[in-house]
Design brief:
Shape: globular
Structural class: alpha/beta
Order of helices and strands: HEHEHEHEHEHEHEHEHH
Strand order of the largest sheet: 7-6-5-4-3-2-1-8
Helix content: 40-55%
Number of strands: 8
Radius of gyration: 17 Å
C-alpha cells in the first residue's frame, strides 16, 4: 500500500514543520497512527513503512488485529530490518466488561477517566507482562457529551492510579471540541498543558501529553503535545459511523 507510506511521509513533514515553527525538536513528538476500522493489512503496510505505534478505539476489532499480527518480529519475516515491534494504544472508551481484553492485549491506554477502570486494568494485567502505560483522559473544555475526568478530579485520580500494581502513569489525553481556527484551537490545548505540568511535578513517571489529531495537530504541537493521534491523513477516509454501527471515535 504505497498510499499509506506516502501519507505517513506527508504527516511527518507536517509534524516537522509544526515543530520548527514552535522551536521544538521533532523527536519530542511521537506519531500515533489511528488504525480503527482499517484492517490488519493497512496496519502491516504502515509498519513496513516505519510506523510502529497504533491507536484503536473498538476493543474487539483491535484484539482481532493484534492476534492476527502477533507473529511479526522485528521485521525478520517481512523484510524490514530494524523495524520496531508493534505497539498498541487503546484510545477509546472502556466498559467494565472489556477491561480484561485491554489488560491482556494493549501496551497503552489513553482513556482512563475513572478509578474503577484503572483498578480492573491493574487486577487483570497478566503477570509477566510489562506495566500497562496509562494516560488519564481529561474533559478539558467542559463539553457535556465528552468523556474524561474533570480537571479538579485529576490530582486525586492520578494519586490512586500510581498506587496500582501493573500500571505506570504516563500523562494526559484530551479531545477538545473542534475549533474554528488555530488561535481558538490553542486555548484548550494550553489548558491541558498546564494540567500536564501540574501532574508531572507530582509524579516523576509522567512524560506524555496525548493531544492533537489530523485537523489540529499544528496547534497541539505548538502548545506542547508529545503525541499526536492521526488516522484519516494516514489511512484515508473511514466509513460513516452509521455504516459501521458505531459511534464516532477519537482519532
Amino acid at each position: 500500500m504505497t498510499m499509506i507510506s506516502d501519507n505517513l511521509q506527508r504527516v511527518q513533514v507536517q509534524m516537522r514543520t509544526a515543530c520548527q515553527a514552535s522551536g521544538r525538536d521533532f523527536a519530542s513528538v511521537r506519531l500515533l497512527a489511528v488504525s480503527k476500522t482499517f484492517g490488519a493489512d493497512a496496519v502491516l503496510a504502515a509498519w513496513q513503512a516505519g510506523q510502529n505505534a497504533f491507536g484503536e478505539n473498538y476493543i474487539q476489532e483491535a484484539v482481532d488485529k493484534i492476534r492476527h499480527l502477533r507473529g511479526l518480529e522485528v521485521g525478520i519475516e517481512n523484510g524490514v530490518p530494524g523495524a520496531q515491534p508493534l505497539e498498541w494504544h487503546c484510545i477509546g472508551p472502556i466498559q467494565s466488561n472489556k477491561t480484561r481484553l485491554v489488560a491482556e492485549h494493549f501496551d497503552w491506554v489513553h482513556s482512563v477517566e475513572r478509578f474503577k477502570i484503572a483498578e480492573r486494568l491493574s487486577a487483570q494485567r497478566p503477570v509477566g507482562m510489562a506495566p500497562l502505560q496509562i494516560c488519564l483522559q481529561v474533559n478539558v473544555d467542559g463539553g457535556e457529551n465528552k468523556s474524561g475526568a474533570l480537571p479538579a478530579e485529576l490530582p486525586g485520580l492520578a494519586q490512586q492510579v500510581v498506587a496500582l500494581p501493573g500500571l505506570t502513569l504516563r500523562g494526559l489525553m484530551c479531545i477538545p471540541e473542534p475549533a474554528a481556527d488555530f488561535e481558538a484551537a490553542t486555548l484548550p490545548f494550553l489548558a491541558a498543558k498546564a494540567l500536564f505540568e501540574q501532574m508531572r511535578a507530582a509524579h516523576p513517571s509522567v512524560d506524555t501529553l496525548s493531544m492533537g489529531m489530523s485537523a489540529d495537530l499544528e496547534a497541539a504541537i505548538h502548545c506542547g503535545s508529545t503525541m499526536v493521534r492521526v488516522g484519516s491523513a494516514i489511512f484515508g477516509q473511514r466509513a460513516a459511523p452509521s455504516a459501521l454501527g458505531r459511534a464516532p471515535g477519537q482519532g
